[in-house]
Specification:
By secondary structure, the chain is of the alpha+beta class. The chain contains 5 helices and 5 strands. The chain is 35% helix and 22% strand. The protein has a 5-stranded mixed beta sheet, with helices on both faces. The model is unreliable at 8-12 (pLDDT under 50).
Length: 167
Amino acid sequence: MALTLALMAAPASQAACSSASASVKTAGKRALVRATLCVLNVERRKRGLRPLRLNRKLSRAARGHSSAMAARHFFSHDSLGGGSFVDRIRRTGYLRGARSWNVGENIAWGSGSLGTPRAIGRAWMNSPGHRANILSRSFRAIGIGISAGTPSGGGGATYTTDFGRRG
């Protein structure tokens, strides 16, 4: 089993997050996205922070990046063509018309039991930079992309979370 991480700038407990221990082999992507959101919002709620809300434009950026990393076997915040996560988010229109904005991204992949929403969330919370994105008071929205397969070419899942706030 493998777990790899990288970072760039409602239920009361994780036990209550349905599908949090599921994998891409045992649950649909929609259930895994909801479980990932739940796991991250549990951590925010524990600290008195507002929950993050799924945003379709941020989700489009995150899904595309997870799919690309799994299919093209790379692991980076930058695309193989050199585009940054900000470039991906900008292409979705999320930043259009904003007077101010703040965005961030977490990426990870895992296989076996390390590729579940709960395991990915735990790993991110144990990494200071990833934890900072998850617990940032600035972020209000999130996009979550989960793709079957890993950058190593093995079984498992690749995760991208794009965080945002528009002013």
